[in-house]
Amino acid sequence: WQIQFHLGPSLFGRKLDIFTNHPLSPDQKFSRQTYYQLAWNNDVASFRISQAGSFHYYATDSNSSSTKSIASGYLLSEPELTIGSTGEKLPLDCIQCQTVLSKNLGPISTWEEKLLVSKKSGYNMVHFTPIQELGDSLSAYSLSNQSKLNSSFNDSNDKPATFEDIEKLTKKMREDWNVLSICDIVLNHTANESPFLISHPECTYNCFNSPHLRPSYLLDAMLFELTLQ
């Protein structure tokens, strides 16, 4: 796909500079804070979409001493999904997805036979809830360690499951079963007993960085005291 910017009638006579954080060549890595200026060619500024994701663009007035944006927006580039060993394209409107509770899948060695049910039921995508280590509440989205796998995935002989095991299975699903996979990453939910929060208490809501919570904290403390009495 090619994105083109044209000057509308209300902008005739003005010279604009347009910037985007979408890389201008396929070999460039995306960095949200890095912007590239587009070149004008016959009153058209354009670039080719080479990556999927959400990208920002903005325009400035070249004749102004100010670098402040006078217009901006976002564009969304949809991913191109492929399945099978030959890379057959799967249209986005053909996705049939089933969600599985990862914490209930058990040892990694038993996943394949369980996930085969989704394949044989006609699904072409499996959505996994978070696969990382859970907190004491065992809520599927309350993680105690974002960089470790859930220990319930370990086999009975205490062989620890690894991210490589997950990758191997999802690759087999994609290439042999024609089934894609998607997994939640949880960046804003952390178990309250997480070692990360103990070392970085400023990363959570508390009465110091969120003083508006103090009345709620006092009420909760009073109710707790009443319960003890």
TrEMBL record:
- Alphabetical list of InterPro entries matching this protein: AGL/Gdb1, AGL_euk_N, AGL_glucanoTrfase, GH
Q: Which residues form the Glycogen debranching enzyme glucanotransferase domain?
A: 89-227
Q: Name one GO molecular function term.
A: amylo-alpha-1,6-glucosidase activity
Give the UniProt record's GO annotations in the biological process aspect.
Answer: glycogen catabolic process
Protein name as catalogued: Glycogen debranching enzyme glucanotransferase domain-containing protein
List residues of the Eukaryotic glycogen debranching enzyme N-terminal domain: 3-84
- Judging by the UniProt lineage, the source's domain of life is Eukaryota
